[in-house]
Amino acid sequence: MKELDIKQYMQGVGRQARAASRAMARASTADKNRALLTIAAAIRRDAAALKAVNAEDVARARERGLDAAFIDRLTLSDKALETMAAGLEQIAALPDPIGEISNMKFRPTGIQVGQMRVPLGVIGIIYEARPNVTIDAAGLCLKSGNATILRGGSEAIGTNTALAALVREGLQAAGLPNEAVQVVSTTDRAAVGELITMTEHVDVIVPRGGKSLIQRLIDEGRVPMIKHLDGICHIYIDEDADLQKAVVVADNAKTQRYAPCNTMETLLVSERVAAEVLPPLGKIYQEKGVELRVCPATRRVLEAAGLNGLVDATEDDWHTEYLAPILSIRIVANVDEAIAHINTYGSAHTDSIITENYSTGMRFLREVDSASVMINASTRFADGFEYGLGAEIGISNDKLHARGPVGLEGLTSLKYVVFGHGEIRT
Amino acid sequence: MKELDIKQYMQGVGRQARAASRAMARASTADKNRALLTIAAAIRRDAAALKAVNAEDVARARERGLDAAFIDRLTLSDKALETMAAGLEQIAALPDPIGEISNMKFRPTGIQVGQMRVPLGVIGIIYEARPNVTIDAAGLCLKSGNATILRGGSEAIGTNTALAALVREGLQAAGLPNEAVQVVSTTDRAAVGELITMTEHVDVIVPRGGKSLIQRLIDEGRVPMIKHLDGICHIYIDEDADLQKAVVVADNAKTQRYAPCNTMETLLVSERVAAEVLPPLGKIYQEKGVELRVCPATRRVLEAAGLNGLVDATEDDWHTEYLAPILSIRIVANVDEAIAHINTYGSAHTDSIITENYSTGMRFLREVDSASVMINASTRFADGFEYGLGAEIGISNDKLHARGPVGLEGLTSLKYVVFGHGEIRT
Fold first, then answer.
1. A-B Cβ pairs (cutoff 8 Å, strict)
2. B255, CA 20 to 30 Å: which among A12, A54, A340, B392?
3. Which EC numbers does the record give (chains A, B) (predicted)?
4. What is the per-residue pLDDT for A391?
């Protein structure tokens, strides 16, 4: 398509989404659940056909020389298909957030004022190779009464188109508009440019992907986003920490998995307990193959305990999300220095203090300016399922609207409702 | 200042605001209230001096030939000063939203998860001639634990600088940082450009002013905004309306005041009751000097009742916020047409239905996609004080973050807090 054609095509997609969003906003819980369960059943029924289509996408990606991690994300295994279907059933089982009216209070004038939870409207999802996002995102947006425009990576276009047909089948079975979930049919990048700027048709963009994708969307977009760029998560081991808890939690936060955004990237340790807690921890990390990038004080403590192979941390390290078996470690004077370090170098994602001291814990909780702040728990808990949201469309580092793990409620808004009896303002 | 100097100056203001916001986030309720009450007392004490400084601003504005309405907004009367001082005392009396922890629930893993209300951080306020905004906005941001950067109109710079000195006095008396409230000292427009794009230092912009100012900020800004552009508010008189209520409410919504954003601009009437309710309403409007811009069906009904001097409404009228004694009127078939008209031509501000029919009222409530939706009440109630928020920084037409009248809570965010006991993720 030419650029002008893409603009017209995307404007058409946007207009149809807006129209469909009106029907979705008034859709009953039963109809939305029927659509979700029908899609789940169709995925199980068509598993073989989906894998065949997916195999063509995978073959093309291999021809283009894409790496093994990419191929892995792109591939639809039996397990991945079952996870998608089960995920839709879980979303169907969640309470419907839409229409809830809360806090209706009478005012002295006689009017009664409260708030009603309503869908955001039209949500654009921009993602890379993972075809499961097509189903997860469509399911969450559908349950929350939104219309969705899905723009997946060009490498998955065959798989995504096949999945979109099943979504349409579910919408039709429930009497919901076909255009409630649309997959962008062109792989031209200009379509993304249009999607993130057509503020009249799209209410929010949820990008799912790497930092470079998201930074580009931030730079070029006009539609608000629910997104996070980095997960530079910290644990601070306080002078009043239970050091056994500290070792167990700091180990888990780094080594349970290296790639997630809620994995710890920098460990801060009070100078009062560094000599006691760092040697056993350093040994665990090195045994698991974690490279340690350390401040000079940490080097002294670890080398005195016989640990070697340390790397000097640079200023850049405190700013870096490794997503790899690498950990930066810094010794700080006290909780004030720890909070200052986190608020300076962190990414406002998730940070945890290990302490038994009530006042120190409460200060950390209040003053660390991050989406999730924890006491005596692993940063790895920052997750929609772990928090009890039931499902997660993403994690937000922003302060406006949704913050932290974003579930169904983050895809909704509150409007004021007023019940009157003919009242006028005087 | 040269452009480069302005950029450096604003970056400095931003950095100082960010630093001050850390102290404000942990400020006690008592200290914040002490600051507010000290500023209120200082305004009363220095009323004569403030009026003298303001008189110089007013004289300059007169020399520049600015119109009477502008001069009126710029002028600090004794009443305006007293309203400012009393407003600060009211804000001091409001509950402190910061630090509230809610919904702490145990999860199966043993962690306890909930949310804490925290300040947004740094709020930029951009406004025009009204110097009272300096005090109102500073007071609300201070109470909600935010740092504030105020950029008022160049015509009020003398008055705003004098008011800023009193704010500083209050901050000092409470031991809070001077930079918690900063008034931009240059009147160069480049300062606004910098303020709305320095996303690293400013968390949200609240513009207070006319549509052209706000549209410019939207076009050029990168920092998120809490704002509304238009108030194209509707009343729909349903076929099942109590017509006595309808007349009283529709009169009030248009004629109580013409300039506010929550004044009705378009009246929609069911064709089933138009012949009965429009003639008495049309007569009231014409007696009060309201120009009526009508659809053909409305013209027939009103002319049959002997009313003249009607103007034919054009497509543009349905899109227009008059802010004047002008009203557009359209007869519609039913509530479906009314909802479609409002969602097409409205500005998602405030819309009200007059009906005694439960199902019709509930449909209107759910399907009209506006920040405030009412049944049997005047749109003029859409206001922070009337809704019981205690105070109002503005009204938002957006769906993300705050929607409708925005009080203290709209200047805050929720972060997740996790209480653990050494839990790890497995």
1. 227
2. B392
3. 1.2.1.41
4. 83
CA distance A58 to A75: 7
Cβ neighbourhood burial of A192 (10 Å; 0-12, 13-18, 19+) = buried
Single out the residue of A52, A144, A132 nearest to residue A94, CA to CA. A144
Are the Cβ atoms of B416 and A399 closer than 8 angstroms?
A: no
DSSP bridge pairs for B327: B292
pLDDT category at B256 given cuts 50, 70, 90 is: very high
Which whole number is the average pLDDT over A58-75? Answer: 93
The alpha carbon torsion through A148, A154, A156, A160 (nearest 10 deg) reads 30
Hey, are the CB atoms on B381 and A256 less than 8 Å from each other?
no
Neighbours of B362 (CB within 10 A): 13
Question: Among partner residues B113, B403, B421, which is closest to A388 by beta-carbon distance?
Answer: B113
Residue A113 pairs in a beta bridge with A105, A418
Largest Cα–Cα separation, chain B: 81
Nearest alpha carbon to residue A351 among A376, A326, A372, A328: A372
Instruction: Average the pLDDT over B409-413 and give the result.
Output: 96
Q: Which of B25, B400, B416 sits opposite A371 (nearest CB)?
A: B416
Chain B residues whose CB is inside 8 A of the A146 CB are none
Return the pLDDT at B2.
73
What is the percentage of chain B residues whose pLDDT exceeds 90? 91
Whether the CA torsion B163, B167, B173, B178 is positive or negative: it is: negative
Answer yes or no: is pLDDT of A204 > 90: yes
The residue ranking higher by pLDDT, A187 or B138, is: B138
Percent residues over pLDDT 70 in chain A: 100
**pLDDT (mean) for A278-292:** 98
pLDDT in tens, B331-357: 999 999 999 999 999 999 999 999 999
Question: B38 vs B51, B58, B158, B170, B180, CA distance in Å?
Answer: 19, 27, 21, 5, 15
pLDDT in tens, B73-115: 999 999 999 999 999 999 999 999 999 999 999 999 999 999 9
Is residue A1 over pLDDT 70? no
Chain A residues lying within 8 Å of B281, measured CB to CB? none
How close does chain A come to B103, measured CA to CA in Å? 11
CA A223 vs. chain centroid, Å, equals 18
Confidence class for position A110, pLDDT limits 50, 70, 90: very high
The CA-CA-CA angle for residues B352, B354, B359, to 5°, reads 95
> What distance in Å separates residue B370's CA from the closest CA in chain A?
7
**Distance between CA A402 and CA A391 in Å, rounded?**
14
Render the burial of B186-206: b for 16+ CB within 10 Å, e for the rest: bebebbbbbbbbbeebbbbbb
Chain A nearest-CA distance from B415, in A, is 5
pLDDT of residue A246 exceeding 90: yes
- Cα–Cα distance, B403 to B382 (Å, whole number): 11
Q: Find the mean pLDDT for residues B130-158.
A: 94
Indicate the burial class of B359 (C-beta count within 10 angstroms; 0-12, 13-18, 19 or more).
exposed
Please spell the DSSP secondary structure of B148-215, one letter per residue. EEEE--GGGHHHHHHHHHHHHHHHHHTT--GGGEEE-----THHHHHHTT-TTT-SEEEEES-HHHHH
Closest CA of chain A from B294, distance in Å? 24
For B270-273, which contacts have Cβ atoms below 8 Å and span 24 or more sequence positions? B270/B236, B270/B237, B270/B238, B270/B239, B270/B241, B270/B331, B270/B332, B270/B333, B270/B334, B270/B335, B270/B338, B271/B239, B271/B297, B271/B331, B271/B332, B271/B333, B272/B239, B273/B237, B273/B238, B273/B239, B273/B241, B273/B243, B273/B246
